[in-house]
Amino acid sequence: MVESTRIVLVSRPEGAPTPANFRIETAALPEPGEGEVLLRTLYLSLDPYMRGRMSAAKSYAAPVEVGDVMVGGTVAEVLESGDPSIAKGDVVQAYSGWQTHQVAPASGLRKLDPDKAPISTALGVLGMPGFTAYSGLLKIGQPKAGETLVVAAASGPVGSAVGQIARIKGVRAIGIAGGPEKCAYVREELGFEAAIDHRATDFADQLRAAVPDGIDIYFENVGGAVADAVYPLLNTYARVPVCGLIANYNATGAPEGSDRLPGFYGRILTKSLTVRGFIQTEFVREMYKDFLHEMSGWIADDLVRYREDIVEGLEHAPEAFIGMLEGRNFGKLVVRVG
Ligand SMILES: NC(=O)c1ccc[n+]([C@@H]2O[C@H](COP(=O)([O-])OP(=O)(O)OC[C@H]3O[C@@H](n4cnc5c(N)ncnc54)[C@H](OP(=O)(O)O)[C@@H]3O)[C@@H](O)[C@H]2O)c1
């Protein structure tokens, strides 16, 4: 009998999550039945959306119930298979959650070829975050050569891919990131035209100076003070793919200060803005195959670079996840489990 070590949700956070919201435990797994496989997790992806799953608030996906294993994308090795399409020893992209082993239906798995790309990239640049950047930018951002794009969380998996794809399309990419080290990486390694530290006291002035022709695409990853600085700089007919609002994920109430909604709507009206939210799953059927093909080519041609922040050991997942919400990760945050 196989035992799975797993991290479960024991309480819902009030504001920022703490280690006390999680517990590590073990559970015995059944034998895989027909059409099922036994998986051993190799890598676990940690992503901002998991903060939403810890909350009971209604959202686009059901919350994790208290006592249940935290959800999450994984790369796993098949230890036993009860399905002819998957063999023992295959490496697959799965959704095993924060645990070392899982019995899962074979139907939801995607086989990976370890000779084509490092398998952990299936959780980052060649996985959900990379696809989010690709689909949100191309479908909603509608980039055109000569335009200017701004994206925050620019050293992370979504933002870094957004800026690099924009550059491939002939767009000036301006990144926003937390701290000088991340900004240097965004400029020098990723080739953004400029990178601005959102923690700098003169952040809004630096941003204005970096976009003398205004902003045509704001790929919204964070909201909060960054969005406040960006909106006045948007050009007529600018597009705003609303991808994430991480600045608000730990909020417990409305932001302080005056109501900014009338000003926000006023700008949408007078500047003819397109502000369109999306969840990447919307575009999977239509665009995932093209994404894998194009992104693999761009990586091979050194047009897209990526960085992984690998944490060793499942037991460190809670603190790594908590740190990501504060910007302590540098690159795609992945836990090496196996
Ligand atoms: N719509 C979808 O389908 C979809 C799919 C995937 C991801 N997303 C969203 O995309 C965004 C980026 O995700 P990711 O996986 O690429 O994350 P990530 O960059 O690896 O990590 C989040 C980053 O957000 C930044 N951040 C945190 N609080 C901030 C604040 N108050 N102001 C400005 N920046 C802040 C931090 O970077 P700095 O240190 O640089 O500030 C942190 O490292 C998230 O909002 C996520 O929820 C949406």
From TrEMBL:
<dbReference type="InterPro" id="IPR041694">
    <property type="entry name" value="ADH_N_2"/>
</dbReference>
<dbReference type="InterPro" id="IPR013149">
    <property type="entry name" value="ADH-like_C"/>
</dbReference>
<dbReference type="InterPro" id="IPR011032">
    <property type="entry name" value="GroES-like_sf"/>
</dbReference>
<dbReference type="Pfam" id="PF16884">
    <property type="entry name" value="ADH_N_2"/>
</dbReference>
<feature type="domain" description="Enoyl reductase (ER)">
    <location>
        <begin position="17"/>
        <end position="335"/>
    </location>
</feature>
<dbReference type="Pfam" id="PF00107">
    <property type="entry name" value="ADH_zinc_N"/>
</dbReference>
<dbReference type="InterPro" id="IPR045010">
    <property type="entry name" value="MDR_fam"/>
</dbReference>
<protein>
    <submittedName>
        <fullName>NADP-dependent oxidoreductase</fullName>
    </submittedName>
</protein>
<dbReference type="InterPro" id="IPR036291">
    <property type="entry name" value="NAD(P)-bd_dom_sf"/>
</dbReference>
<dbReference type="InterPro" id="IPR020843">
    <property type="entry name" value="ER"/>
</dbReference>
<keyword id="KW-0560">Oxidoreductase</keyword>
